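Q: Okay, next protein. This is Alpha/beta hydrolase from Pedobacter punctiformis. I've checked the sequence twice, so it should be correct. Can you predict the 3D structure?
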Amino acid sequence: MKLFLFILFVGFSIQLKAQVSFEQKFNSLKQLKLDSGVTLTFDEPPRLSKAKPLKVIIFALPNGNNTAQSFGKNTSASDDWHFNIQHIGAQTELIRKVDPATNYVVIYLENNLKSWPAWRRKYSNSNELINNVVRCIADQYQKYHPKLTLTGHSGGGSFIFGYLNANPKISDLIERIGFLDATYAYETDLHRDKLNNWLKSKQHYLQVIAYNDSTVVLNGKPIVSPTGGTWYRSKLMVKDLNEKFIFNQNDKKLSWKSDQTGFILIKNPDGKIFHTVLVERNGFIHLIFSGTKLEENNYKFWQERAYTKYILN
């Protein structure tokens, strides 16, 4: 099956320096455009060293955002507000600074409908297409023996579940799976056993971050059904996993943690919308470092941005 329509290279990755602007940095990233309306944008370090392990983070975009907005920049009054709610680019730079012994590549996955659920409905073979994308990414970096992370925010979780649906088991190439308020499509019958079997390897880790969206009322109506939000679906996932969790709670959050699994659910008695705040408050960094010796090294989840100095103008 021919997967690619054409490849568009927009320069090469450049070293992040103080004088580099957002436009210079972002326009230097290479892109790969697929015939299914999917665009991959590659944020690579200036040099990929074979002496270092390579971690490839596949980040499926949330509904309504383009890649530049998810990358993020310092904004002025004339800028779209979406540029200031995720800052995956700046969070990536902090990750690289905290762990210089590892090569980190982040690949942004965007589709022309700006919605992974809508894109999957459009293509009857969407699960197969998603599986091919992940396999081709692994093949591209094969000589570096990469370990892959599947992650996404909001509707980006649909991409992850599409991958799970496409495979009888999760590949050992997938080292980490992370959901940023993105578990809407979790189903016990489809996903429980695959996740449990994957977690039998001590090399694998699952991190879920969500908030109580069931308390949110917008324009007089709840934003999710009683069983359709990430609060409910994430708790269902906890119930389904054969993990020996240590459960903790305080005024702000609930958490379940094991050696290979972490769940953080933010309480929300006032019915606020924390959908993007989960990302902004160091959520992307935590997905990568949780369960490692670098957890909360130079950052803390759900506190002020730790990556501010890496945000470009």
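A: Here is a summary of the prediction. Residues 1-18 have pLDDT under 50 and may be disordered. The two ends are 41 Å apart (CA to CA).
Q: Noted. On to the next one.
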